[in-house]
Amino acid sequence: MGERPTAPNGIILFNYPVSPFGRRVSWYLALRGIGYALCEQPFIMPRPDLEKLGLKYRRIPILTIGRDVYLDTRLIIRKLEEKFPDGKLGSEKPEEVFVEKLLEKYMVEGPVFSMATGLVPAQMMNDAKVMEDRKGFCGRDWTRESLEQGRPECLVYVRNLFDFLETTILADGRKWILNSAKPSLADIEAIWPMDWLVGMEGAVPSHVVSEKHFPKVYAWIHRFRAALDEAQSAAPGTAVLDGDEAVNVILQSSFSEGTGTVDQNDGSGLKAGTEVELYPADWGSEHRDVGQLVALGPDEVTVEAKGTGGAGAGAAGLRIHGPRTGFRVTEMGGST
Ligand SMILES: N[C@@H](CCC(=O)N[C@@H](CS)C(=O)NCC(=O)O)C(=O)O
């Protein structure tokens, strides 16, 4: 009999390789040397593995720890910092935490990703299914024509972004954003869209953005990639699970954390136990997870999905956690 599949540290990352958001998490795990299992997902819908879990959220990546499901890289990284505090990448100093948070807000919640996606080379959009699947994502229809049309504005924005880092925080020749000895959380928060753009052939023409124009930013990216290679070769190998294995591991696990409480000062007025829908506010909002509200705080909302799941998850339930910002939590049938 073969060995029963397991997930190191109870962690499973649902991701596909070209996801720049997914890289935020796989880089974090590699830099920390935290072992996990990967369950690779298709680039477009449907995603049957997630359906089997009864999950409706359609963005990538998703991370599970035991029976707890974490949505959105902001919350995923925060949770990993909390659950594996020894050697965490975030700072303890308030002014550095301020920088990390602002970078997260600008790079993840702000306009950066949308502007960067506007530089996806138009010739890459040659699959009608992909265009249909991503309609409206980052505010575009993803036709070649609209990409071509929007390109100049995105290029101006991205060039300014490179210039911003080159002439401010990296100007003094420091190796890492917070002048740390190793890459820290602030580096992850800042580097992922830049690395994605530099690595995407045809995205940024070399007369506008290049090593020559922005030597410090490029050197930082090279340094980061080298640090990552080093961490990856030292890290425990990633276990790979297929969809059925991942679903089984999750459904045989227990919850990895307690339920938490519902903050009466949240502003929504929602009460513990109310049946709610949870979904991202910006895109993919029609994919809504339904469950009972079990926790609500300034940074996190948790619903327990019971009976709404797929084949396996329905009976026993999963707890689905989302960040509070950028997500909506609304009472089923209500107007909250
Ligand atoms: N704020 C989310 C954004 C996630 C996101 O937009 N991911 C992209 C992939 S890089 C996505 O979901 N694209 C649509 C899809 O894969 O279905 C996060 O930080 O996780």
What does this structure look like?
With 336 residues, this protein is an alpha/beta fold. Among the domains are: 94-232, Glutathione S-transferase Yfyf (Class Pi), Chain A, domain 2 (Up-down Bundle); 258-336, Glutaredoxin (3-Layer(aba) Sandwich), CATH 3.40.30.110. Helix content is 38%, strand content 15%. It is built from eleven helices and ten strands. Strands 5-2-1-3-4-9-8-7-6-10 form a ten-stranded mixed sheet, with helices on both faces. Strand 7 and strand 8 form a beta hairpin. Helix 1 (20-32) packs parallel to helix 3, helix 1 (20-32) packs across helix 8 and helix 1 crosses helix 9 (215-234). The chain starts with 10 loop residues before the first strand and ends in a 5-residue tail after the last strand. The model has no long low-confidence stretch (mean pLDDT 94). The site of glutathione has 10 residues, from helix 1 and helix 3. This is Glutathione S-transferase. InterPro entries: DUF7962, Glutathione-S-Trfase_C_sf, Glutathione_S-Trfase_N, Thioredoxin-like_sf. Residues 9-88 form the GST N-terminal domain. GO terms for molecular function: transferase activity. Keywords: Transferase.
